[in-house]
Design goal:
There is one protein chain. This protein has two domains: 168 residues, P-loop containing nucleotide triphosphate hydrolases (Rossmann fold), CATH 3.40.50.300; 174 residues, RecF/RecN/SMC, N-terminal domain (Glutathione S-transferase Yfyf (Class Pi), Chain A, domain 2, Up-down Bundle), CATH 1.20.1050. Helices cover 38% and strands 24% of the residues. It contains nine helices and 15 strands. It starts with a strand and ends with a strand. The model has no long low-confidence stretch (mean pLDDT 94).
Length: 356
């Protein structure tokens, strides 16, 4: 997958700019505050209609402008398609080939983008919700059914929690909702479990190259319940045992919405025992690993790395550069960096211009 052109109108600090990136590594350079991250953010936004820097879309609109627009033309195999997103006070309009879409999950088939930014470094020490979101988004890019099933789980949970809070206790209704929840949760657990199993060797591959040597890396998925034989009866027993507590709290304490995973390095949980540098490298490896799970070259995602080199020492930076050689199209922001063979996109004066 290749981004052939990017157009920004009133996006953050850009009034109007258009750039045609190179097909492989693109080094986005400029002084601090020029708008390098804003450009990288726009590329990622086209794939998910959401920023990695917060949920308030109106902050993406340039000061004083009524709306903003970001557009990307993507080539996948022999087909070219356009994604355009307009944000205004009235909301957000997402279009593929100038036609509105109802589900933003449809974007991944046209604009699949993996991204890593400094905000991803605390992934392993942060709340479990962040790790679940990473995992579910990665799975959802491959299989949109996963996100639909998660939405179904969320809807049942909402109804069950409302019943738990109700002034009038209705155990029969709660049992019906619980059985629906059990059925809806099983495919989510199975898919998460299978994806983590596939992810482990890819994470090890990337981590070893960045570290410059082999180090034992593992990912431990922590399901709320083993989805194997006897799952339904075990789940019913679990929800039955926790029912009184759920009533007391007015919320469902067990389920896929409480699951987690941890990354182990040298036998230790990197989130609790790893250094800042180890957390950075393993988070980066985790974000890059999905690229290597896709076999079809045309389907391989675009990679966006924001300010990734600034906190890496020379050895680890060299290891990352060897990984870049294996990727397809990539965008790396930096204030002062040289990468052999990279196309240069210079950001200055609220413009982005490809120099080579």
């Amino acid at each position: 997958m290749i981004l052939e052109s990017l157009r920004l109108s009133n996006w953050r600090n850009y009034e109007a700019t258009t750039v045609s990136p190179g097909p492989k590594t693109n080094l986005v350079v400029g002084v601090n505050g020029a708008g390098k991250t804003n450009l990288a953010e726009a590329i990622y936004y086209l794939s998910i209609a959401r920023s990695w820097r917060g949920s308030d879309d109106k902050r993406l609109i340039r000061d004083g402008a009524p709306s903003c627009y970001v557009e990307g033309v993507f080539r996948k195999g022999g087909r070219t398609r356009k994604v355009g997103i307009e944000i205004s006070a009235a909301g957000k309009k997402v279009l593929i080939d100038d036609k509105p879409i109802r589900r933003t999950t449809d974007l991944a088939a046209v604009a699949n983008v993996l991204a890593f930014s400094p905000t991803d470094v605390p992934l392993f020490s942060g709340p479990p919700a962040d790790r679940r979101a990473f995992l579910d988004l990665a799975i959802g890019r491959e299989n949109p059914t996963h996100l639909k099933e998660l939405s179904r789980v969320a809807q049942i949970l909402k109804e069950r929690n409302a019943a738990l809070k109700s002034e009038f206790r209705n155990d029969g209704y709660v049992e019906v909702l619980t059985n629906e929840l059990i059925a809806a949760e099983k495919p989510v657990v199975l898919r998460r479990q299978a994806y983590v199993g596939r992810l482990i060797p890819a994470v090890r591959r990337v981590a070893d190259k960045i570290f410059g040597r082999e180090r034992p890396v593992d990912i431990i998925y922590q399901p709320f319940l083993d989805p194997g034989n006897g799952y339904e009866e075990a789940a019913k027993a679990l929800y039955r045992d926790t029912l009184e507590g759920d009533y007391a709290r007015g919320t469902t304490a067990q389920g896929v919405h409480k699951e987690d995973f941890c990354v182990m390095l040298d036998g230790l949980d990197v989130g609790g025992r790893g250094s800042q540098g180890e957390n950075r490298i393993l988070s980066l490896a985790l974000h890059l690993a999905p690229f290597f799970l896709i076999e079809d070259e045309a389907d391989k995602p675009i990679v966006v790395l924001d300010d990734v080199y600034s906190e890496l020492d020379e050895q680890h930076a060299e290891g990352l550069t060897t990984i870049l050689e294996e990727l397809g199209q990539a965008f790396i922001t930096a204030t002062n960096k040289t990468i052999s063979g990279a196309s240069i996109i210079e950001v200055a004066d609220h413009k982005a211009i490809r120099r080579e």
